[in-house]
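Hello, quick one for you while I still have it in my head. A protein chain has come my way and I'm curious about its shape. Can you walk me through what the tokens say about the fold? No rush at all, and the record is pasted right below.
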Amino acid sequence: MGDVAVGARSGHGGEEHRGSSAESAVPAADSAVTPGSDSGAAEDDRVTDEKPRTEGTDDRGAGGTPKPKKPQRSFWKELPILIGIALVLALLIKTFLVQAFSIPSDSMQNTLQQGDRVLVDKLTPWFGSEPERGEVVVFHDPSRWLAGEPTPDPNAMQKVLSWIGLMPSAEEKDLIKRVIGVGGDTVECKGTGPLTVNGKALNEPYVYPGNTPCTVDDGGGQFKVKVPKGYIWVMGDHRQNSSDSRYNQSDKYHGMVPVKDVVGRAIVVAWPINRWSTLPVPDTFDQPGLSAQAAALTAGPDAVALLGVVPVVLWRRRRSGTPAVR
């Protein structure tokens, strides 16, 4: 290393080394200090705490003996843990975020078809949000509206899922309808319509083609009701094929649905894939004096749907695992 050697012989080989004082003045090349050496001093008097690295140090213990490696847990031992975590996550999603429901009837055609799976937002009610006009909501049977309907006979797997909370029990009966009136509203039907809320006629493009907004019959198709606070008035989009608030006015709530019985708002048709769509509030409820808050509430649930749609639909894809609403 000729650049750092001091006092080397000349090319003719005739000169002797210089005195010892000169040799000690300049360090030899093989004693140069570099970062990471034992001395801890850099070439320009900088100090570093970095210790020397030796290949394989990380895998060796004291005295250079190899460290024993931790044995990997087998997949079959981890599988119960993974299943447990998945069940807990599914339970939390179902309880606090979204829940999937199956549509078994025609009462909400053409908005919803038989066999559709909808995702219901259960999060916003936790923050005090109440149903608004125009929303499609799922609610518990308020007063034996489904009396006489066949009760499903669950198999062993469905009973297990019900026990851990991933399915409602066979005794639970839920319905799905559109909110027409909220607390304080006056809802009225005369003749074949239009339906009015607080004296304002509604243009209802969601009503099933060929149906009239109001029904001329003696069972409840003609009515004028005042909705109490804490209740909602609901109707199906298939007006001539829906047993809704109109035809349950003889029950203890006079056809009203208590807000406390509302499970949540249906926000997405999640299955089948070719019917994937959101369920926004129709423009008819945006007219002045009807629903000033409805438009502001549509963005939040849609965001929840995007977060929850994939895992929930995959989990509840099979019909047997999805509770039905009418």
Observations:
- Helices lie at 20-25, 75-97, 156-163, 299-315.
- The chain has a mean pLDDT of 73.
- The first strand starts at residue 98 and ends at 102.
- The longest helix spans residues 75-97.
